Amino acid sequence: MAPPRSFLWTRRIVLTLLTAFVLLPVYVMVSSSLKPLADVTGTFRWLPSSLTVRPYIDIWSTVPLAKYFVNSLIVAGAATVCSVVIAIFAAYAVSRYDFRGKRVFTVTVLSTQMFPGILFLLPLFLIYVNIGNATGIALFGSRGGLILTYLTFSLPFSIWMLIGYFDSVPRDLDEAALVDGCGPLKALFRVVVPAAVPGIVAVAVYAFMTAWGEVLFASVMTNDTTRTLAVGLQGYSTLYDVYWNQIMAASLVVSVPVVAGFLLLQRYLVAGLTAGAVK
Amino acid sequence: MTTTAPVTTGRRAPRDGSPAGPVPGGPRRRPGRLRRTALPYLLLLPALLFELLVHLAPMVIGVVMSFKELTQYFIRDWGAAPWSGLGNYRVSVDFDGPVGEELLRSFFVTVGFTVLSVALCWLIGTAAAVCMQDTFRGRGLLRALFLVPYALPVYAAVITWVFMFQHDNGLVNHVLHDQLGLTDKPSFWLLGDNAFVALLTVSVWKGWPFAFLIVMAGLQNIPKDLYEAAALDGAGTWQQIRRITLPSLSAVNQVLVLVLFLWTFNDFNTPYVLFGKTAPASADLISVHIYQESFATWNFGRGSAMSVLLLLFLLVVTGVYLAVTSRGRRTARA
């Protein structure tokens, strides 16, 4: 049965308005990044007076954007890999074994989502400084410290989602592998992990986005050499003249890797959520 | 949608159906038993260690700090800071004093902001997901498009909004004042009372796609035959949405609203990038307020006390929320 006209019209209006709402900032970002400076310092113009790629060249010299970019890549990449591997182990344990403290573990891990970041920012800072003083491992100000911090940010959600996903992989599969003489770890990596690739991809995307976009800890825990994009991008606006065209160009450049990756892999995220989190 | 997910309906069956699940407690009476029982704990060890180091230990230390007179003189050796008992808490909740008064105001701003933002995000996200439940041309493209605000790094998106809200060269004033003539003179969006509207707009723009994503995933778990049966009974599209779609989402909504609430309440990134270190009073969210209170005055003990109060509040709200909504759902089902 075809939906009634009232529904079709409501749908059309809702979706059109939302598209406009979503696209407005995207349009501003893209169009302003191609404008000469005069266009972004005067009254706003919908269309550039002339198109220029100058901002895309200048962004690399106004602030050391390439360095920030590399830092962000290293930090987010390493945090993602570690977080995913750790989450796979933990989720496998919860999904396939009954053990004492299982419930306490899942509840505790999830409840960390509730903590205000501000509550553990300073204590964490003190812990890192003290570990550095005691062992000589420099965590504060280093990429390592940031990686460590970020991997735990995405861990609770990743574990939660992978538990649901692993639960949806039939147990007969890895039981068969166990009967065939595989060890539990071999069964995990030979059978469960390949069957759960979409969920794992989704979790990896989430972990990368989390690390790539975090501002609070990045602003406190980095120094000049380890600064990430989240903090570095603010360098453009502290200048005497605000180069809005360059800021927009830089924003676009730092967004492209995550947005492209996310859009390519979003169907996995939806599938992963459907199988795991929302059940 | 072509999903590569394994058949999701199989999830419960193996666990409930096969009494000989692989390992409750490990296979007894076999050698290797100790290793088998230790295995789940070994698998959890890395996750536990990191969570302990980065979340739980700092939280305990944060609570300890809140009872100390931890000012800048003691940063190097925070153990040496004198104890202050409940002093930090007393200052924070003394709503007649300047510190407590501002904290209370910031708290109310945050509550108002969070309620509005969560309500709008949920409403828009659900509306969009329901609109896109059936297939139509361009649906996949639209879905990808709607997820862009969620995928964009917070700072890149919020900086763009800062540009749009500029007084002289921003898009918002250009449209509202120059083109539509709705205001007498260009407004300041990032100062004064307007800042609340600006913050809410950005927060909803950034937050609704998550609600959309979750509701969309939830919709896929509603059995198709429910709709077919309803259609046979003569229920129209609107009725199907009201009678089947929305009630089926109650489990998803319970978690979604809670998660949105906690994230919005604790959000630091959006206001921090939007306003910088000092937010205007109308948009002074509690995370930024505490951050500012700690780092501007270097009084970390007091900042910790405020964070602990915030955590307690969130714990109570979460507990009450879960208790009430779980009971509501049980009675609804009975």
Automatic annotation (TrEMBL), chain A:
PROSITE patterns, sorted: ABC_TM1
Membrane topology: Multi-pass membrane protein
Cell compartment(s), UniProt: Cell membrane
Highest taxon of the lineage: Bacteria
Segments traversing the membrane: 12-30, 68-92, 104-127, 147-166, 187-209, 243-265
Keyword terms of this UniProt record: Cell membrane, Membrane, Transmembrane, Transmembrane helix, Transport
Record keyword Cell membrane present: yes
GO cellular component, one term: plasma membrane
Family listed: Belongs to the binding-protein-dependent transport system permease family.
Name of this chain's protein: ABC transporter permease
TrEMBL record, chain B:
SUPFAM superfamilies the record matches: MetI-like
Membrane topology: Multi-pass membrane protein
Keyword Secreted in record: no
Transmembrane stretches, start-end: 38-61, 107-132, 144-164, 195-219, 244-265, 304-324
Superkingdom in the source lineage: Bacteria
Keywords: Cell membrane, Membrane, Transmembrane, Transmembrane helix, Transport
This protein's record includes keyword Transcription: no
Signal sequence extent: none
GO biological process: transmembrane transport
Pfam families associated with the record: BPD_transp_1
Family annotation (InterPro entries): ABC_transporter_permease, MetI-like, MetI-like_sf
Subcellular location: Cell membrane
Region feature (Disordered): 1-32
GO cellular component: plasma membrane
Domain ABC transmembrane type-1: 107-321
Membership in a protein family: Belongs to the binding-protein-dependent transport system permease family.
Protein name as it appears in the record: ABC transporter permease
Species this chain originates from: Streptomyces fumanus
Lineage start: Bacteria, Bacillati, Actinomycetota, Actinomycetes, Kitasatosporales
